[in-house]
Amino acid sequence: MYNRDNVFYKILNGQIPCEKVYEDAIAVAFHDIHRCCRIHVLVITRGLYINFADFVKQASADEVKSFFHAVSHVANMLGVKDSGYRLLMNSGLDAGQEVEHFHVHILGGEPLGKKLK
Ligand code: 5GP
Predict the structure, then answer these.
(1) What value does the mean pLDDT of the chain take?
(2) How far away, in angstroms, is 78 Cα from ligand 1 center?
């Protein structure tokens, strides 16, 4: 069950500030507070989903499509389309998912190497 007591819910509701780079009806994107590389932006759903599996199960096909279009659009906006970037979705304990509100990390702006950072 989705728990509203998480930091991204508070960001969505304006209770906690963020460095926003993009928003539309489906998605909101902002800089990660602890950047792990030169460009580290989070794209979160406006809908209340816990993780990737929950999003794919509960969201409509249009919402899933629009969300990933937004992720692609944000990557273009950040100027990493040609240089390349990594998308990261942590899901659950073993992945170290810290915030239980579905989100995608966009990582780039420098060579990331073969391994996850
Ligand atoms: P996860 O491990 O859940 O995939 O990643 C959650 C991310 O949210 C982490 O990279 C963490 O730095 C970021 N984060 C946690 N709290 C805040 C916050 O208050 N503001 C922002 N902008 N990012 C946050």
Answers:
(1) 96
(2) 18
